Q: What sequence folds into this?
């Protein structure tokens, strides 16, 4: 079953991509994801929101600075996802102090988590968490770089190379553009990124401590929201014990 990677050229693809994305994130559970997306009562609404959001961003994106990728199993085109088994979004982050689709390093605007109910604990928590994450990254990553905004592979096709294809595409684009590569990784994905040539630089701690937290805040805070800041130099893979990220020099 050959896996074929391509850059998304048609916004109609986001229907299949969104469905695969939703199902792919069910296993393993991603505790960070719900802070970036609405909490829908059913799968169909969640997929429709994701597809519409991606299509809207796609309509106005600069194809020389942002890329949606998909990996298709050509022997499974009649699957529920039209053969799509993996997807990723890469962006050339020029450090112009602007927010990306779901935030971005160097962002100075405060997050407005409008996907959560105004005045809710969920909204306040999401804004605190996201601002802390971008603030942490922005204080370290201060040079233009290739930024992996999202990546997911459906469970049935993991360990077949789809994820590696998606990551290596961005790395090769970074080398082509003469840029470093930066990834904010979930703890569970650290090893996969290291195998693709990125180095694990630093633990990203969640900044969600507040005075007198409510029971709901404590519930959200109890999940593991840590991450790893991964980095790769220009033109070659990271070498443990030799390479050091520029902000550490």
A:
């Amino acid at each position: 079953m050959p896996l074929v990677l391509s850059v998304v050229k048609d916004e109609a693809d986001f229907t299949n991509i969104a469905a695969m994305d939703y199902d792919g994130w069910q296993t393993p559970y991603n505790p960070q994801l719900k802070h970036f997306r609405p909490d829908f009562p059913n799968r169909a609404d969640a997929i429709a929101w994701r597809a519409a959001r991606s299509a809207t961003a796609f309509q106005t994106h600069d194809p020389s600075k942002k890329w949606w990728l998909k990996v298709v199993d050509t022997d499974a085109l009649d699957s529920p996802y039209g053969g799509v088994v993996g997807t990723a979004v890469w962006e050339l982050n020029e450090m112009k102090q602007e927010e990306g689709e779901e935030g971005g390093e160097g962002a100075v605007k405060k997050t407005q988590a409008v996907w959560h109910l105004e005045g809710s604990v969920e909204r306040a928590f999401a804004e605190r968490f996201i601002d802390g994450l971008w603030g942490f990254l922005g204080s370290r990553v201060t040079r233009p770089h290739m930024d992996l905004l999202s990546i997911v592979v459906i469970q049935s096709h993991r360990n077949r190379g789809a994820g590696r294809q998606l990551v290596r595409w961005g790395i090769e684009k970074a080398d082509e553009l003469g840029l470093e590569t930066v990834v904010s990784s979930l703890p569970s994905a650290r090893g996969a990124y290291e195998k693709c040539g990125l180095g694990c630089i630093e633990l990203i701690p969640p900044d969600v401590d507040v005075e007198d937290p409510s029971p709901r805040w404590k519930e959200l805070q109890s999940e593991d929201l840590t991450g790893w800041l991964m980095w790769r130099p220009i033109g070659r893979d990271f070498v443990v014990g030799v390479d050091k990220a520029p902000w550490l020099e």
